[in-house]
Amino acid sequence: MKRRTLLISAKYIVLASLLAGCQIGGSTVSEREGYFTWVDEQGHVRYSPTNEPAGQVPAPVVAGSQPAPHLQGKGAVGFSDPDTEYTLENYPDADQLAKDGYVRPGERQPYFTWRDAQGNVRVSYYQPDTRTDEQKGYISPPVELSTASVYRAGSDMTPVIPVKGSDPDAFAVLGIEPASNDVLTTFSEFCCENIDTSDHEEWVKDREFGIRITSDSPVHNFFTGESPFQLIALSSVINHPDFIMRIRSFFNKEVFVPSLAFLDRNFVPVRLVTDLVSTYVPENWRSRGYLEAWVPVFPEEGERWLVIFTRSEDLKEREIIETKKRPKVIPHAATGEIGLKLVE
Question: For the residues of 39-92, what is the DSSP string, one character each?
Answer without folding.
Answer: E-TTS-EEEEE--PPTT--PPPEETT-PPPGGGSSTTTTSS--TT----TTTPP
